[in-house]
Design goal:
This protein has about 525 residues and is α/β, with parallel strands linked by helices. About 30% of the residues lie in helices and about 20% in strands. The chain is built from 16 helices and 19 strands. The strands form 3 sheets. Strands 1, 2, 3, 4, 5, 6, 16, 17, 18 and 19 form a 10-stranded mixed sheet that branches. Bound molecules: N-(aminocarbonyl)-beta-alanine and zinc ion (2 copies).
Length: about 525
């Protein structure tokens, strides 16, 4: 694990020698990199932004379980106390939060930074993607390690390198793309030594990531024995392939062919299959990017029956509909291509309702950005358009505006679905996902009366388009504090490449509680083996 801030000043100073703080204004900076650009005038950030002591004064402090008007005192990257009227000395930077909400920074459970995929590499790396995240109030994300030729440890090492310029905290899930003894052994090493507690199985992407039911079963058993959470991308890859063939035969080669080739029924089937196999093995399952009513209803049914299933909708699936895929301009349409596809109107509203009532538990982004040039790889064939959309910077604003703004969820629910539940599922609560004494000081100040507007001209991602272009709303993240440092204030980012820490996530989260008992009940219910006497005849 990377260092913790034992002495904030020394650590910030040391990091500044290695990587000077990088200052980006929200309205002017489009492309963001660790190597180039304007460095803030504040030499080594030894000013308010890097003070080791902060007091956030007079805001409404919101946790998933409770909200109260209080001050928050932070020292050396950790929350020290949360109570009204905290008195401090002159050496403390004071941030006035009166009339505003003080909440745990967002945790995005689903991102793909610097990911090699479909003949391209996502344009946001760990620095630019994280800078964008911080500008939008997200202070931690969990990315997916892709194995190298099926080798998990080689994949993990590659992602350790990719993430060394990180400017906020992050963790990893690891994808499983083949099965043999080495994979099974490496899963154990990753869980016991490397801080991994989740593995992802793709039921789609035939010919690259897709796994068979046989592999999924092996993986589910191994996950269960290690206390690791199995995750699935649930689409039937064989049916997708058939659907794609059908579209090409019909002469449909544009982005609309992407949606038409993989309808919701294919997502529903794979979701149901994965859920039933998890039931058969008796292990928890996390369904990533639930995009359709079909998939959501499978999650709902299984949860109602008592199965430990987590359903993760993503912002694009909650907010957008598929109309853009029919846009006559190829690039405009192609930027909405992701898998499973963004669905026809109606699905998003149903997913919002499921999220607000606890059928679905937390919101991710599946941030996986390709620019216009990369999307153009599929100009003659939708099967070659790199799949993925943006969302890391936009998630918190859009969920606040759409769901809190409309009264569908409370402010405490907002904290739960954007931060706390993710921390609980991946077993890092209350270090993350809470503002409590001892928690990491990953905190946002959101002004409910201030407005945001989304544009590729002002966003901090490196991509040149934005699937939420032109959207505006109420409720703006005015301040982001990551690891006790103010990294976003007055529409300006002050981020230090290399300051983000890798967060190890221990196995056996709360989702595993009681599994031993239900296994014992199962065994005692078998009434077998039956003792039979051999009768001759
Ligand atoms: O289109 C998507 N979702 N791209 C990222 C890879 C995945 O399936 O999560
Ligand atoms: Zn996926
Ligand atoms: Zn994904």
């Amino acid at each position: 694990m990377a260092f913790r801030f034992v002495d904030g000043f020394c650590c910030v100073f040391a990091l500044c020698l290695l990587f000077p703080p990088f200052s980006i204004s929200g309205s002017t900076q489009q492309f963001c990199s660790a190597e180039s650009g304007y460095y803030g005038a504040t030499a080594c950030g030894i000013q308010s932004s890097s003070s080791t002591k902060l007091l956030i004064k007079g805001g409404t402090v919101v946790n998933a379980h409770h909200q109260e008007v209080a001050d928050v005192f932070v020292e050396d990257g950790i929350v020290v106390s949360v109570q009204p009227n905290i008195e401090v000395g002159d050496d403390v930077t004071v941030l006035d939060a009166s009339g505003k909400f003080v909440m745990p920074g967002g945790i995005d459970p689903h991102t793909h930074l610097a990911m090699e995929f479909m003949g391209s590499e996502t344009i946001d790396d760990f620095f630019s993607g994280q800078a964008a995240a911080l500008a939008g109030g997200t202070t931690m994300h969990i990315d997916f390690v892709i194995p190298v030729n099926g080798n998990l440890l080689a994949g993990f090492e590659a992602y350790e390198k990719k993430s060394k310029n990180s400017c906020m905290d992050y963790g990893f899930h690891v994808a499983i793309t083949k099965w043999d003894e080495n994979v099974s052994r490496d899963m154990e090493i990753l869980v016991k030594e490397k801080g991994i507690n989740s593995f992802k199985f793709f039921l789609a992407y035939k010919g690259s990531f897709m796994v068979t039911d046989e592999l999924l079963l092996e993986g589910l058993k191994r996950c269960k024995s290690l206390g690791a959470l199995a995750m699935v991308h649930a689409e039937n890859g064989d049916a997708v392939s058939e659907g794609q063939k059908r579209m090409i035969e019909l002469g449909i080669t544009g982005p609309e062919g992407h949606a038409l080739s993989r309808p919701a029924v294919i997502e529903g089937e794979a979701t149901a299959r994965a859920i039933r196999l998890a039931h058969f093995v008796n292990t928890p399952l996390y369904v990533v990017h639930v995009m359709s009513i079909d998939a959501m209803e499978e999650v709902a049914k299984a949860r109602k029956a008592g199965q430990k299933i987590i359903g993760e909708p993503v912002v694009s699936g909650l907010i957008l509909d598929d109309q853009w895929l029919w846009h006559p301009d190829f690039i405009t349409a192609a930027k909405y291509v992701m898998s499973p596809p963004i669905r026809p109107a109606g699905h998003g509203k149903a997913l919002q309702a499921a999220l607000s009532t606890g059928i679905l538990q937390l919101v991710g982004t599946d941030h996986c950005t390709f620019n216009s040039t990369q999307k153009a790889l599929g100009i003659d064939d939708f099967r070659k358009i790199p799949n993925g959309v943006n969302g890391l910077e936009e998630r918190m604003h859009l969920i606040w505006d759409t769901m809190v703004g409309s009264g569908q969820i409370s402010v405490t629910d907002f904290v739960r679905i954007t931060s706390t539940e993710c921390a609980r599922i991946f077993n890092i609560y209350p270090r993350k996902g809470a503002i409590l004494p001892g928690s990491d000081a990953d905190i946002i100040i959101l002004n409910p009366n201030s407005s945001f507007e989304i544009s590729s001209k002002s966003h901090h991602s490196r991509t040149d388009t934005n699937v939420y272009e032109g959207r505006s709303g109420k409720g703006k993240v005015e301040v982001t504090i990551a690891g006790g440092r103010v990294v976003w204030e007055n529409d300006e980012l002050k981020v230090i490449p290399g300051s983000g820490k890798y967060v190890k996530m221990p196995p056996f989260s709360y989702l595993f509680d009681g599994i031993d008992k239900s296994d014992a009940n199962y065994l005692s219910s078998l009434r077998a083996p039956v003792k039979r006497s051999r009768s001759e005849g």
